[in-house]
Design a protein that fits this description.
The complex is a heterodimer of chains A (610) and B (411). Chain A is of the alpha+beta class. Chain A is 38% helix and 18% strand. Chain A folds into two domains: 52-239, Penicillin-binding protein 2a (Domain 2); 250-601, 3-Layer(aba) Sandwich (Beta-lactamase). In chain A, the strands form six sheets. In chain A, strands 2, 3, 4, 5 and 10 form a five-stranded mixed β-sheet that branches. With 411 residues, chain B is mainly alpha-helical. Chain B has one domain (11-409). Chain B has 16 helices and two strands. A two-stranded antiparallel ribbon of chain B has the order 1-2. In chain B, strand 1 and strand 2 (112-113) form a beta hairpin. In chain B, helix 5 (115-133) packs parallel to helix 7, helix 5 runs parallel beside helix 16 and helix 6 runs antiparallel to helix 7 (164-181). The longest helix of chain B has 33 residues, at 312-344. Classes of the chains: A alpha+beta (610), B mainly alpha (411).
Chain lengths: 610, 411
């Protein structure tokens, strides 16, 4: 056997050692590649392997009112995340959390759809304290859950400010797809409507990130201090022009059973003092997320509590718009400020073979502009409309902005409906307008629907020098170009004189508006509506200030199906102005008996009554 | 004194190298148990391993007392017993703990051991006994049938467990022994060719090409082979090529996956390729000098699979870096070198074949085990000699060293 020959063994031994050298050499080379050449790549992978980013919610900016009173702030809340490496174990954990967090089957399916392998899954954005303490106690039973303190939104004034502030809610899939929210992540709370939506980016702040050290099974080993921690940036606080107490006051005096809107503006800069829509809702209930059933109840409520009537509701302005017709007429020189209209009001006027009635069958007789406003005389305004002419009326109304939005800093605002030209009728109704359309327009009827805010902006111009800045909610906005009525100061005085007639002794709204300390001017309006032909919407648009001084607040109230502008809407305006001005001048706040009418009804003496 | 030491341990350099490797192994098993969330499986494993090491040293000493002739005599009975044990394992065996479907352990009540480890040494002895007593060198295909059968029986039984890693070690034993006995390389390739066909048949075109190549080679080689031999090689290749699909389907899912993942570890890092990717991340992140003993983060956070057994080298790579890798490889190279030198010096064919058989088995263990941690070799459950946690394997490795040293004494 050749095996015994030493030289054969030497040869084979050399061969075997050569083989060992090749095999181990190959290993050495491969390890050189992995450990020396690509070490940095693997180093990075090993870091990311064990660190899981956990978002650190930035506290949302506080919203203050003009008096630095907190309107919306944050209270501690708890968010529950699940960090698991596989869909199966995630589902398992969700199932075990089900009884504690009240997760429904659908909710679990939604969460599973959202699950991404390396991302913490937000299970509950607002876990209640009870559930959190149970989970904390039995930590061992729930591997991979993370309970984080997260600031939770609180709306201090609740339903009084619901529409204007809006609310926050978990960002939806649709929103995530929008370019505006490209930086946002699932599970984040986001402003849904109102100020919360409008100033979302400023209020949101920048969420930070914290790293949790986990093992291969996703078990949390600890929180790693010092590594790339990013505390984020708290949201910016914002200050609004709103007056929280005024809004709460309006909320308390607005008739509970009725819907409507109250808008109050500050004539000095167009700042919105109050923007109240009724019926309202509690924004706090949205913060922790509504169940589909709760959502359905609110959404299908025939009273439409979510609908912000101040900026979205469109209502025929009725007689409140007569001031616009008057301003247009003065602007164009169609009538002189003190000119008496040729035809007296005899309860009606025959125009083109059609007898058009005034609201007062007895008639108003000969009237000038101020008198016509004070009496809201239709016969005067028919003639005024004819003097202006349809084309000029459309041109001027459009220029003033009745076919536009106000441009207030809110995400949803309806644009006014007003014919910008003759083709409006063709487009909307399929016929060319007759010259007679101007008659309806002149008394605030016809194809003309405005938001309460738009009417407030128009009266804002009357309360100033004929110009009105864009109403705004944020304090110190960038100045925008307001619009101008193009009437002289003395014409403004004539218009105000007309308004004064409404609220003076003998005026239709005298009892409903007369206040002890303040002079109030305003115009009533009722607008027929398709929903209920018997009960018209009630308007009152007014302004108030110290006697003999300039107006310091403009208030417009609209009460749906309120029937009477002077009886229902006017007292709301007066009481709102009274509350605001009393506080402004350091007087004790009023009890609920403010107007002369209220004093009379309750038999309370009003020695100040003129 | 020096002579006395040599008397007791045989080759002092090899003994010290193996002792050092064992101590290193215990240290790395200790480190593998240092986790952020301790696991009962790995915690304290190093103590058990140290106990086994002590037992192994005792076994080493006892074998030093046994006469070499007796070792030669025991080869056949040991082989028969080990085959019987393997059969028993298939019937009443248990898994190593949690792994279901794998039965590689025999539970004797007081102790659990792996008969396949025992069978490896017994097969080496039996193969050496057979080859050492043949008057002719195994230079014909027909002469390879008996050796192939001696190894084939335990190999088949191990595959049935299924334990592909240990089966590979048997292949290593066969080819190492044949190489040492003087079988030409070409002949060994022919012996291996059905296996190659099996793998290549997954691509029919490549397989067809290799088949044509094989037939051509057989034609050129025709004067050295009987016609029957050539035909049976061709037939074996044809059969292997055609049954491969059947065989593939008979593999367990995890075995299929391991092969697929070997082809591309990054296919699904969370699925089958997970082990390899995590292991490479651990080793790669170790860099030149490592993260420090017990400080490996991949290991600590439990990203490493089987970190105290089959993937112990990932811990070495992560914590000791390329430096540790090279030192460990060097120590293994030295051990292998000493084994080869030992075999070279043996005039007795049986002694030389045993020593070289052990070399072959360990070379497979070392190369496959370390290679799989960096994706060079498919993941197979094969431990690293002296380092991986595992009592039977450590004990039998020491017994093998003792046998080789005892046989070398007479040289």
């Amino acid at each position: 056997m050749r095996l015994v020959h030493a030289h054969n063994r030497r040869r084979r031994a050399a061969g075997a050692l050569g083989f060992v050298a090749i095999a181990l050499g190959a290993l050495a080379i491969q390890f050189f590649r992995v450990q020396m050449l690509h070490s940095n790549d693997y180093m990075l992978k090993s870091e990311s392997n064990r660190l899981r980013p956990l978002p650190v919610a930035a506290p949302r900016g506080t919203i203050f009112d003009r008096n630095d009173r907190v309107m919306a702030d944050n209270v501690p809340g708890y968010v529950i995340y699940v960090l698991r490496e596989s869909p199966e174990s995630t589902r398992q954990i969700l199932e075990s959390l089900r009884p504690h967090l009240g997760l429904s089957d659908e909710r679990i399916e939604i969460l599973m759809e959202r699950y991404q392998r390396w991302e913490p899954l937000v299970v509950d954005i607002d876990a209640d304290f009870q559930a959190v303490s149970v989970l904390e106690e039995r930590r061992e039973d729930f591997p991979g859950i993370v309970i984080e303190m997260r600031p939770k939104r609180r709306y201090v004034a609740g339903s009084a400010v619901a529409h204007v502030l809006g609310y926050v809610n978990e960002i939806t899939v649709e929103e995530l797809a929008e370019p505006r929210f490209s930086e946002y992540e699932p599970g984040l709370l986001i402003g849904q409507v109102g100020i919360e939506r409008q100033y979302e980016e400023r209020l949101q702040g920048r969420r930070g990130v914290r790293y949790l050290e986990v093992d291969a099974l996703g078990r949390i080993v600890g929180s790693l201090a010092g590594i790339k921690e990013d505390p984020g940036q708290p949201g910016e606080d914002i200050r609004l022009t709103l007056d929280l107490e005024l809004m709460e006051w309006i909320h308390s005096i607005f008739p509970d059973s009725l819907g409507g809107a109250v808008v109050a503006l500050d004539p000095s800069d167009g700042g919105v003092l109050a923007l109240y829509s009724a019926p309202t809702f509690d924004p706090n209930s949205f913060v922790s997320g509504l169940t589909p059933e709760e959502w359905a109840i609110i959404e299908t409520d025939p009273r439409k509590p979510l609908f912000n009537r101040t900026v979205m509701g469109l209502y025929p302005p009725g007689s409140t718009w007569k001031l616009a017709a008057a301003a247009i007429a003065l602007d164009r020189g169609a009538v002189g400020p003190h000119e008496i209209m040729e035809e007296p009001c005899t309860g009606g006027l025959l125009i083109d073979g059609l007898y058009r009635r005034c609201w007062l069958p007895e008639g108003h007789g000969y009237l000038d502009l101020a008198g016509a406003i004070a009496n809201s005389c239709n016969v005067y305004f028919y003639q005024l409309g004819l003097k202006i002419g349809l084309a000029a009326m459309l041109e001027a109304g459009t220029r003033i902005g009745f076919a536009e939005q106000c441009g207030i800093d809110l995400p949803q605002e309806s644009r006014g409906i007003f014919p910008e030209a003759n083709d409006f009728w063709q487009r909307e109704f399929g016929y060319d307008p007759l010259e007679g359309e101007v008659l309806s327009l002149a008394i605030g009827q016809g194809p003309n629907s405005q938001t309460p805010l738009k009417m407030a902006q128009f009266y804002l111009a009357l309360a100033r020098d004929g110009t009105a800045p864009t109403p705004h909610l944020i304090e110190n906005p960038e100045p925008t170009e307001g619009w101008r009525l193009n009437v002289s100061t003395e014409s403004i005085e004539v218009l105000r004189e007309g308004l004064r007639g409404v609220t003076s002794p003998g005026g239709t709204a005298y009892f409903g508006t007369a206040l002890e300390h303040w002079e109030i001017l305003g115009k009533t309006g009722t607008s027929q509506n398709a929903q209920d032909s018997l009960r018209a919407h009630a308007w009152f648009a007014g302004m108030a200030g110290p006697w003999g001084g300039e107006p310091e607040i403009v208030v417009v109230a609209l009460v749906e199906f309120g029937e009477s502008g002077s009886g229902v809407a006017a007292p709301i305006v007066a009481k709102t102005a009274d509350f605001y001005l009393r506080r402004k001048y350091g007087m004790p706040p009023p009890d609920s008996i403010q107007t002369l009418g209220e004093h009379y009804n309750l038999g309370r003496p009003a020695p100040w009554a003129r | 004194m020096g002579n006395l030491f040599k008397h007791w341990v045989g080759d002092p350099a090899l003994f010290l190298a193996v002792l050092l490797m064992t101590a290193f192994g215990v240290a790395m098993i200790y480190s593998a148990g240092v986790l952020n969330i301790p696991s009962p499986v790995t915690e304290g494993a190093w103590i058990r391993q140290a106990q086994w090491a002590a037992m192994a040293l005792v076994a080493f000493m006892i074998i030093r007392l046994i006469g070499p002739r007796w070792i030669e005599w025991v080869a056949v009975p040991a082989y028969v017993v080990s085959v019987l044990l393997l059969v028993m394992t298939l019937i009443v065996g248990t898994g190593p703990g949690t792994a279901s479907g794998v039965t590689s352990f025999l539970d004797l009540g007081f102790i659990r051991f792996q008969p396949s480890e025992f069978a490896k040494l017994a097969t080496i002895l039996a193969l050496a006994r057979y080859l050492g007593t043949r008057p002719e060198d195994p230079v014909t295909l027909r002469a390879l049938v008996a050796p192939a059968a001696i190894v084939g029986v335990p190999l088949a039984l191990v595959i049935l467990q299924p334990d592909l890693g240990t089966a590979l070690a048997f292949v290593g034993i066969l080819f190492a022994a044949l190489f040492w006995a003087g079988t030409p390389i070409g002949l060994m390739v022919l012996l291996l060719s059905p296996g190659i066909s099996l793998v290549l048949s997954f691509d029919p075109i490549i397989w067809a090409a290799s088949f044509v190549f094989l037939v051509g080679a057989l034609y050129l080689y025709r004067y050295r082979l009987f016609l029957v031999e050539s035909l049976s090689v061709v037939l074996a290749n044809l059969v292997a090529g055609t049954i491969s699909t059947l065989l593939w389907n008979s593999l367990a899912d995890y075995q299929q996956n391991r092969i697929l993942v070997y082809l591309d570890p990054s296919v699904d890092p969370r699925g089958a390729g997970y082990h390899v990717v995590q292991s490479m991340v651990a080793i790669g992140s170790g860099g030149p000098t490592g993260k420090g003993f017990t400080a490996g983060t991949q290991k600590r956070f439990d990203f490493l699979p089987e970190q105290h057994t089959d993937f112990i080298f990932s811990v070495i790579g992560e914590e000791l870096g390329y430096l540790g890798t090279i030192l460990t490889l060097s120590l293994f190279a030295f051990i292998l070198y000493r084994l080869v030198r030992m075999a070279e010096g043996e005039d007795d064919p049986f002694a030389g074949l045993v020593t070289f058989g052990i070399f072959g088995a360990w070379l497979v263990h070392i190369f496959v085990n370390i290679g799989m941690t960096v994706g060079m070799v498919p993941v197979t459950g094969i431990p690293l000699p002296f380092v991986s946690y595992g009592g039977t394997f450590l004990l039998m490795s020491w017994v093998a060293i003792a046998v080789a040293a005892r046989l070398a004494d007479d040289a």
